[in-house]
Design brief:
The complex is a heterodimer of chains A (481) and B (150). Helix content of chain A is 49%, strand content 14%. With 481 residues, chain A is an alpha/beta fold. Chain A has three domains: 142 residues, Rossmann fold (3-Layer(aba) Sandwich), CATH 3.40.50; 185 residues; 91 residues, Translation factors (Elongation Factor Tu (Ef-tu), domain 3, Beta Barrel), CATH 2.40.30. The relative contact order of chain A is 0.14. Classes of the chains: A alpha/beta (481), B alpha+beta (150).
Amino acid sequence: MAIIELQESGQCHPATAQGSTSQNSTSAEPSNAVMRLRRPTRARAESSDVTALCLFVLVVTLGLWWQHGGVTAIMDGGTDRLRAFGQLTGLIAALASLGAIILTARPAFLERRYGFDHLLAAHRWFGITTVIFVVAHSVIGTLAWAALAQMSVTSGLVDLLANEAWMVAALVSTTLFVIIGLSSYRRIKNALAYETWYFLHLTGYLAVLLGFGHQLSLGSDFLVDRIARWWWIGLAVATIVIVIWSRIGVIVRSLSGRLYVTAVSREAIGIGSIHVNGPSLRRMRIAGGQFFIVRPLVKGLWWQAHPFSVSAAPTTAGIRFTIKELGDDTPNLLNVKPGTRVLLEGPYGVFTAEQAAGSPVVLIAGGVGISPIRAILEDCSPEQQPILIVRLHHEGDFAHRVEIEDLIRARGGQLHLLVGPREWFAARDPFAVQNLTTMIPDIANRHAFICGPASLESAVVKGLRKSGMQSSNIHLERFGV
Amino acid sequence: MGTLARRLAPAAALGGLAIAIVGLLDPALAASRLPARDEMTAMAPTDNAAQQGGATTATCDTAETVTGPIVTTRWGPVQVAATIAGNTLCEAHAVVWPTGERQSRQISTYAVPELDAQATRQGVILDGVSGATYTTEGYRESLQQLVDSL
């Protein structure tokens, strides 16, 4: 699990503008040995594969519960009904918690299909499901125990904790899940430093682990039926393998890649670029629009992870990340000395030109969102007749301007600038249907790539939908879901 | 580093507290688990088939079967019968076990054969079956009284 810094501005990611004064012209056509890095391979898993796998796990697990008499007990009523409901909620909570862990581990087979942002969005729903069902399971399970033993609820609870193996662990697990859930509630989360929240969230692994004991020692589905027991242990082992492979493997690979900072350049006020290279770079497959989680391995910075978009097509000469000083820690990143080792995790994201599959595109950027949009533009061909719409407060904010105008010219594309203060934006909606169709006459045939503040993204999506663009043709990357 | 320590502290405290609570209080880990079992250990050091070694097999051929009392547990009655040859417990098996409702029937299917095997192997000081705490206690109790009555 790596740290994703969520910016208060809600932008795609905090990678941002590069000034037009860059000496490192990585966008130049390859001269000698400088070659474009290969693009990522296509996702192997289809959505239907993933759905089928999830359904299989759910059907087998609930099928075992059914076969053990769960459904009959609910039909029959009595105290057995309460117990059967307790088992059902417990099974769902456990499956949801394993799913949440797998999603946040972002294994390649899922990430290449759905993108990191969608996996995190799904993780959130799996997590919410886990907390709700864990609490329901705890309450129903205690009631069922007390009812069967003909005890009061309090003495039933005391009895469970004092006499049954792994029940104290289960209660601690429930408490951890509730704390993790509450700390992720937006108001509380915003009040915490990002890493404080993140480290608290890591105790989720402990919560899942502590909850596992009572499933095997008290869960009658897994006590009696040997096949069910091995199925359950198998699910847990598979999860552990995926987590280790995806989370620890990626760090080991990055460390062994010996990547380091080759240069840091100040581009404009508050904006700079970090250039990274190293022996393993040639083996990487990266597309424009993707991002890495970057950790410079220096004191005070190594434990902070920042998602940064690649701001130019990556070549064997290096990758360029352009950074705007947003968070409290970002300025330090621009003070790292050349030669500093960096840990790169990625590339992540499916916000790439590949999504358009060669169709004509419209690229829409707001402010700092120009960075990944610029890299996507570089991956577009002249046949895609790129139309670029850039929304800015001041014309001077237009980062990458010279590079972008060159790229647009080389592809026979068009550039529309929407410059004006926020009030202007509010008074005259530049993304109203008539404005969009004026700028993009063949709007229904195009794919759209959008990166900018959340308010801009939602205004653009609304305008594009009203103008007749299919939602499957609209691509955007959302962090802070 | 000061910042890291500050941001790590709440999670570390929470995780440490969680592990400490489980380690100290959970019956699965706590040293003081199953006090009933300690009493048994003190009360009944006798009649352990495993300790008798090969000498038991000969006498077990002429062993008599003794039945313990019915012990009522939370989930239902438990009664143990054992074959005893002199001072040696040759074999033990439950003759009555909880069958009240679905859960008990499921647990018993799993736990009773295991308890029988343990009792035959270990005597009164049997390990017990997790998830069948009450049946285990009832089983021990019935077997203990059976041994005491000899």
